Amino acid sequence: MEEDLAFLDNASAAYEDIEVNGAPCAPLPFDRPKTGNAERVDAPVYNPVTHDVLEVSNIIYERHADGRPPDRAYWVGRKLKKCIFGVVKECTILRFRNDMNAPWEVTAQKAAVKIMSWQKIRDLRHIEDPQKEVAAMQYISKSGGHPHVMGVLDVLQDDEYLLLFMPFCSSGDLFGFVQQAGRFPEPMARYWFKQILEGLSHLQRMGVCHRDMSLENILVDEYRTSVVIDLGMCLRVPYDDDGKVTDVSAGTLRRLIGPLIPCGKPNYISPEIFKSEGPFDGFAIDLWAAGVILFIMLVGLPPWEFAGEEDPRYRMVARGGLERMLESWNRTVSALATDLLQKMLREDPRQRLSLCEVKDHPWVLGDDSNAGSFGAPSNEGWRG
To answer: Domains in the chain, ordered, with CATH?
Structure first.
């Protein structure tokens, strides 16, 4: 109950409340990632459907120091996409069956594994640190995880690779669905937006600012569930402890974060991050990006190239002209949706809606039962 009250205090806090809560400070560090020892083998695998036993290569599991059998293994399969530090591949999860003739059994469960080279991690650490992303994912998963934020199944390592095993999302990213549809009808946009807000709610409960929210960083699984991914740029938000700095577990109000180098996709970066001249509220910049996500779902186009005075479309919206801009584009959006977008995309974070205000907005509370259904986008761009 106290945890829920603390969350609501932060989810409803105005910028001014946070501004007077203490001097801006640096984000808190994440703990180092916890990893197990990876064992890679070829082994016979039993198929319980066909009752066949197949000799399978490239099975990875955790080798326990005490010799106890592994809980599960991963049969690594096809490549899904390249990443900066290596590759992402699809896996089939295997169950240990304690049979010398076929020690593993196929299951219907899938996973994805990000295979990252230690050499590339060392060479490119100045660009991005994947160990921080792994640590952040473990951190947000420690309370049992959340269906709308990508969690961790296992983190293993050997001399060559860091291996991050995650749930598998079969239907690509939400950007692909918008591309396929052109733009979403409002009930469909509302259906997905509510899930995105639930993902943001979990991050706020854990005291985490994502900092790179975008349609490309929201995957969709076969059950029409969206999952926020890519925590490589996230920050652990500082909280106040009677003038000192603590974390979210104290149940207090968060503090502003001192200026940092801008990061994220230009369309989604908030104006205060784009300028990078003063402190910012980690939760407010994620809600700004959520507003851009909703805009693109409803309109089919990004509102601007970047949130700076040099961009004429941004200038128009910043001065309250979002409705006029949509009329000039001949893109009809309901009055309630326009009202929500304008209030989420206010230039001054002091005037922007909080998470609670967004979730309580009449448009968000509307009916999404006619959201309809659609298949995976044909290009499935995230797979490369």
So the answer is: 2-28+170-383 (1.10.510.10), 36-167 (3.30.200.20)
